[in-house]
Structure formats: C-alpha cells, structure tokens
Amino acid sequence: MLALKDVNKYYGRNHVLKDISLDFHAGESLVLVGESGSGKTTIAKIIAGMEKADHGSVLFAGRSLAGNCRQRRFEDCAHIQYIFQDPYSVLEPAFTVERVFAETGRICRRNRWQFITGTEALSYVDANLLPYLQRPIGELSGGQRQKICIARALIPIPKVIIADESTSMLDYESSIDIFNLLNRIKEEKGIILITILHDIDLSYDRWDKIAVLESGALVEQMPFSDFYSKAKHHYSRELIEAYKFFQEDIVDAEDTTTGRQCKSGIALTGPYIGG
Is residue 45 part of a domain? Predict the structure, then answer.
C-alpha cells in the first residue's frame, strides 16, 4: 500500500538519505532505528510530505504522491497522520481537549472528508480520559497528552500513522502503554504503523518488522522476531550488544514468573532476549 522507491535527500552537500527503498503493508508495523542524524525522521517527513525527496518517489495505493503536502490531495494528507516526539509543544496548553479535536473536525468538514468525532476517537484510545474533554491541555500529564495526539490522529480515519520517537519524553511504563495502544490500533484498524526509535527494547515483541539506518543508508531490514539472532550488519550487532550490556547492568539476578525485576523497580515482562 505504501512504498519508498530509491529515495535520496541532500541538505546542501550532506547526502542524508541514500537510495532508500521500503515497502509497508496494511496491518503491519515497522520500527525504524538508527543513531541521531541517521535519517530516520527525514524518511518520516518525506512520507508525510513535510520534506521533499530530491530523487525517488513515495507511492501510496499504487500512486505517486506529490513531494510537498501542500501539493497533495487532501485525502493523501488525511490518510497519513504524524505523531510528534514532544506532546508538550504540539498542543496549545490553554486549549481544552475538546477544542483541539474540534479544529481537526472543522478541517475535515471543510474538505468534505469523512471523519469520526474527537469523543469517538478518545473513547477508543482511552475512555478514562473522556472526563477531561473540557479540561485545558496544560492540566494533563505527558502520557495523557500523547494519547490526545493519538486520538486526534484517528479523527480523519487514517491508513498510516507515523510515531516519531513519540515516547522519548515519557517514563518506561507510559512508553509501554503508548506502544501497546499503537499496536492495538494497528491490529484492530488495519493501519500501517511506522515507529521511529532511537533506543530499542528487544524484549518488546509486538513489532512486525525492523529497518536499521546508518549514515543515511538502509543497512538491514527483516522481521523483528529474527533481528536478535539473525542481524548481520555491524551497526545492528552494536545495537544488540548495547541492549545486552544495558540489561546485564540493570537487571536484578532474581527472576520472577512474570518478568525480571530491574533495580529501578520496572518489571520487564514477556520474552527476555539476551539473557
């Protein structure tokens, strides 16, 4: 449904993306990882139309998309929704939650685009937040604000959601809550979920695929479940070794039946990779 074909991007003389080709399918998630400056966010912004590729193309439903979102059809913009890293800067603190949702609804209505209400979207994301509809955004926690951003992204009934390091400002438990929510949306709505991460928890096993970037080049892509045992590129192995080192450093020797208890008090549940 969504594909990048031989995408290249330059900032001046800096070749930031080098012949990137990726395919995405409905109901599938892909984690895009790499060090800072590797080109992860540039790929995401090119897909969303916030950046324009210098060479190559973005295909959606078999059709080439215009490079700039202002040149795209409204339906293309509605179908691809972007969740930013910082939930504190993208929402006006003085606005109520309802007002944030209403603006998105007005844009859809003005373009005669089918949409769901903010109340419907929030009810689906987290019904416990419904009493906050009349509250100012400034009264919400970081995790609650990110859920508001996710609910807002669902209003135009998207087919693609891009989450750009959307948990980097949250604590561990809130991050897992957001990851679980995004994957539930992916599974139940059949959307394409693209998640950009700087650091990756290999014990979280709900991602479908992983793609690794190094210095603007796509150096490895495979099913997420194969990454730990089958990754071959030196940078992929560095990511795995860093993960193992981190786990060996913080995980308490005493295991429990539900996970391993970290010295920080966080239980890493599910399959533990690297022990």
Answer: yes
For residue 148, the tally of other CB atoms under 10 A from its CB is 25
User: Quick check: is 254 in a domain?
Assistant: no
Q: Secondary structure of 98-139 in the HEC alphabet?
A: HHHHHHHHHHHHHCCCCCCCHHHHHHHHHHHHHHHCCCEHHH
Tell whether the torsion through CA atoms of 142, 39, 268 and 122 is positive or negative: positive
Residues facing 58 on adjacent strands = 4
Question: The domain containing residue 209 runs over which residues?
Answer: 2-233
| pTM of structure | 0.87
Q: Which of 98, 114, 16 lies closest to 56 in space, CA to CA?
A: 16
- Please give the single-letter amino acid code of residue 19: D
Q: Does some domain include residue 259?
A: no
Domains identified in the chain, total number: 1
Nearest residue to 137 (alpha-carbon basis) of 100, 177, 178: 100
Residues 148-191: pLDDT tens digits? Answer: 999 999 999 999 999 999 988 888 899 999 999 999 999 999 99
Distance, CA of 76 to CA of 38 (rounded, Å): 26
Assigned domain for 46 exists: yes
Could you tell me the two tokens for 25? 């399918």
Q: Is the distance from CB of 33 to CB of 163 less than 8 angstroms?
A: no
At residue 201, what is the residue type? D
CATH classification of the domain holding 126: 3.40.50.300
CB atoms under 10 Å from CB of 256, counted, come to 10
Q: Sign of the C-alpha dihedral, residues 40, 43, 48, 50?
A: positive
Condensed to tens digits (0 to 9), the pLDDT of residues 193-202 reads 999 997 788 8
Contact at 8 Å (CB) between 163 and 196?
A: yes
Confidence grade of residue 18 (pLDDT, cut at 50, 70, 90): very high
Token digits of residue 206? 């709900």
Residues 208 and 191: beta-carbon distance below 8 Å: no
